[in-house]
Automatic annotation (TrEMBL):
Residues 9-133 form the Electron transfer flavoprotein alpha/beta-subunit N-terminal domain. Belongs to the ETF alpha-subunit/FixB family. One of its GO terms (biological process) is fatty acid beta-oxidation using acyl-CoA dehydrogenase. It holds the Pfam family ETF. One of its GO terms (cellular component) is mitochondrial matrix. CDD domains: ETF_alpha. InterPro entries: ETF_a/b_N (IPR014730), ETF_a/FixB (IPR001308), ETF_alpha_N (IPR033947), Rossmann-like_a/b/a_fold (IPR014729). This is Electron transfer flavoprotein alpha/beta-subunit N-terminal domain-containing protein. It is found in: Mitochondrion matrix. It comes from the Eukaryota.
Length: 138
């Protein structure tokens, strides 16, 4: 039998040039409103040295970050929603995350609805504020 955390958050982070993008750092700050004292996991994908440098940057970017999950494959080097949605489905199911957050970029807006469909859940999009773990302002 597996015990699950009550609130667990996964942030899908984008990176460029070995650094996590500012929009993803903003998503991490939003995750803090949900996670409270719980830790947050970050998911990074891509390939090559820039990915691993970004993973190091992500791990040091915020004290709330508990783990950085890295998907090192050329498949994830481009922001195509279809392979990323499959990855996100797999990671969410294995990790049992209660919340998945991505920044409101074209990548995030393409990814979350596809992943939500695979997981048979409804995405909450265009959130401007998080009042409580299950209360969102749009």
């Amino acid at each position: 039998r597996t015990l699950r955390r009550l609130v667990s958050t996964l942030v899908v982070a984008e990176h460029e040039g070995g650094l996590v993008k500012p929009s993803s750092l903003s998503a991490l700050v939003a995750a803090e409103a949900i996670a409270k004292e719980n830790k947050v996991s970050l998911l990074l994908g891509g390939s090559g040295p820039a990915l691993h440098k970004a993973a190091e940057h992500a791990a040091a970017s915020h004290p709330l970050v508990n783990e950085v999950l890295v998907a090192d494959s050329d498949v994830f080097a481009h922001p195509l929603a279809e392979p990323w949605a499959e990855l996100l489905r797999s990671v969410q199911q294995k990790g049992g995350y209660s919340h998945v957050i991505a920044s409101s970029t074209s990548f995030g807006k393409n990814l979350l609805p596809r992943a939500a469909a695979l997981l048979d859940v409804s995405p909450v999009t265009d959130v401007t504020a998080i009042s409580e773990p299950r209360v969102f302002v749009r």
